[in-house]
C-alpha cells in the first residue's frame, strides 16, 4: 500500500459524459501528479499541483481539468468523453515539488468510455 | 523536453536467466532516475532510484541498476529472474532544476517481462 488513495477503482461511462476522479495523497505530501496510461501512448504526464497551485502541465487535453483542494486531495475532471479517453489514470504524490524525492503511486482508476 | 527510451518492448526469459533491461534518457543535466515495476492489474511500485553518489544502485527483490552518465543510460539488471518477476518495468527520469521544466517524471514506454517457469 503506497498511501495514495484513488477513487473510484473502475468507472464505465458513455461518450459525451463528464466524470471526476479523486486522489488523496500520502499524509504530508504536498505535490500531486496525474498520469494517463493507455496501450498506445504508455504513461503520459497530465498535470501537477503543489500545495493547491498548478505547477506543471503535460499532455492534458483542454477537455480535462484538475484542481487540488486545501486539504491537498486532488480531482481530475474529464468532460465530453471520447472512446479514446479510455485508460488507466494514476495519481502520484511526493513530499515536495523539486529536488530529489520520489513519487508514490495510487492504484489507479480504470476508465472505460463506451 | 525529456524523453526516455526503453529498448525492448517484450522480453521472455526462463527462470534463473539473467536480465538486463535498457534505458536511455535525453536530458543532459542533473537528473533523478527511477525504475518502477507494475505487476498485472496493480499500481506502479518503486524498484530502485538514483539521486547521486554510487552509480550502482541496489533495489528491492534483487534488482540493481547502473547509471552511466556518459551514455545517458540507467540499465536494470537482475542476475537470476523468477517467475514472480513477470511484470512490466518502467524507467523514469526527473530533472532536478526548475529551469529545465517541471519536476514530473517522464516515463519510458515500458518493457514487459515474461518469465517462463
Write the layout of secondary structure elements.
The complex is a heterodimer of chains A (114) and B (117).
Chain A (H helix, E strand, L loop, with lengths): L4 E3 L2 E4 L5 E6 L6 E8 L3 E9 L2 E5 L6 E5 L5 E5 L8 E8 L9 E2 L3 E5 L1
Parallel strand pairs in A: 2-11
Antiparallel strand pairs in A: 1-3, 3-8, 4-5, 4-9, 5-6, 7-8, 9-10, 9-11
Chain B lengths: L3 E2 L4 E5 L4 E3 L2 E2 L5 E8 L5 E7 L5 E3 L5 E5 L4 E6 L8 E9 L10 E2 L3 E6 L1
Parallel strand pairs in B: 2-12
Antiparallel strand pairs in B: 1-4, 3-9, 5-6, 5-10, 7-8, 8-9, 10-11, 10-12
Q: What report would you give on this structure?
A:
The complex is a heterodimer of chains A (114) and B (117). Chain A is mainly beta and 114 residues long. Helices cover 0% and strands 53% of the residues of chain A. Chain A is built from no helices and 11 strands. In chain A, the strands form 2 sheets. In chain A, strands 2, 4, 5, 6, 9, 10 and 11 form a 7-stranded mixed β-sheet that branches. Chain A has a 4-stranded antiparallel β-sheet with strand order 1-3-8-7, with no helix packed on it. The radius of gyration of chain A is 13 Å and the shape is globular. With 117 residues, chain B is mainly β. The termini of chain B are far apart. At the A-B interface, strand 4, strand 5 and strand 10 of A face strand 5, strand 6 and strand 11 of B.
Amino acid at each position: 500500500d503506497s498511501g495514495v488513495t484513488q477513487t473510484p477503482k473502475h468507472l464505465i461511462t458513455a461518450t459525451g459524459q463528464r466524470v471526476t476522479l479523486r486522489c488523496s495523497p500520502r499524509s504530508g505530501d504536498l505535490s500531486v501528479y496525474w498520469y494517463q496510461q493507455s496501450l498506445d501512448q504508455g504513461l503520459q504526464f497530465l498535470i501537477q499541483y503543489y500545495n493547491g497551485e498548478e505547477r506543471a502541465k503535460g499532455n492534458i487535453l483542454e477537455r480535462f481539468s484538475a484542481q487540488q483542494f486545501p486539504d491537498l486531495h486532488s480531482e481530475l475532471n474529464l468532460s465530453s468523453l471520447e472512446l479514446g479517453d479510455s485508460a488507466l489514470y494514476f495519481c502520484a504524490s511526493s513530499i515536495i515539488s523539486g529536488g530529489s524525492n520520489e513519487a508514490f503511486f495510487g492504484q489507479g482508476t480504470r476508465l472505460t468510455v463506451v | 523536453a525529456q524523453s526516455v527510451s526503453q529498448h525492448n518492448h517484450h522480453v521472455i526469459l526462463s527462470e534463473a536467466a539473467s536480465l538486463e533491461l535498457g534505458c536511455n534518457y535525453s536530458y543532459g543535466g542533473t537528473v533523478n532516475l527511477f525504475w518502477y515495476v507494475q505487476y498485472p492489474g496493480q499500481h506502479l511500485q518503486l524498484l530502485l532510484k538514483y539521486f547521486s553518489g554510487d552509480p550502482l544502485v541496489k533495489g528491492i527483490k534483487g534488482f540493481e541498476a547502473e547509471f552511466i552518465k556518459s551514455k545517458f543510460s540507467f540499465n536494470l539488471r537482475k542476475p537470476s529472474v523468477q517467475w514472480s518477476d513477470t511484470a512490466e518495468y518502467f524507467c523514469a527520469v526527473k530533472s532536478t532544476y526548475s529551469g529545465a521544466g517541471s519536476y514530473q517524471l517522464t516515463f519510458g514506454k515500458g518493457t514487459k517481462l515474461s518469465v517462463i517457469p
